[in-house]
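User: tokens in, sequence out, please.
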């Protein structure tokens, strides 16, 4: 019983802080959106951005290999043992739900939390 009271208390605190954060973010967006788009970047800012991004782009292009990666050991293992270890008939299902179930669950939770956050921040129009 004490656990549920503590959980309810934290939920109330979190809801208050989220509403305060939402109000602050919306207020900042209203006041700074006009000022942000009116400021012009100087030539030195453009040059510094180019000097930083150009070497990174060159390193990225240099490290790209155009040959397909072959992981025959993992592929052979999943092909031979996937259905036996997971109990799934389909090999894709065995990999997706058997070996990557926690990863898939985590991705789903992150996606749902981000959607909930966007809906919460957007809110009702005032």
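Assistant: Sequence out:
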């Amino acid at each position: 019983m004490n656990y549920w009271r503590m959980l309810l208390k934290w939920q109330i605190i979190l809801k208050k802080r989220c509403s305060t954060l939402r109000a602050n973010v919306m207020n900042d967006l209203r006041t700074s959106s006009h000022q942000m788009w009116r400021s012009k970047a100087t030539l030195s800012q453009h040059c510094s951005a180019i000097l930083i991004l150009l070497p990174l782009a060159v390193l990225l292009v240099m490290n790209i290999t155009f040959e397909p990666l072959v992981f025959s050991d993992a592929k052979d293992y999943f092909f031979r043992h996937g259905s036996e270890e997971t109990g799934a008939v389909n090999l894709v299902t065995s990999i997706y739900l058997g070996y990557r179930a926690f990863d898939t669950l985590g991705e789903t939770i992150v996606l749902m939390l981000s959607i909930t956050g966007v809906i919460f921040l957007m809110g009702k129009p005032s």
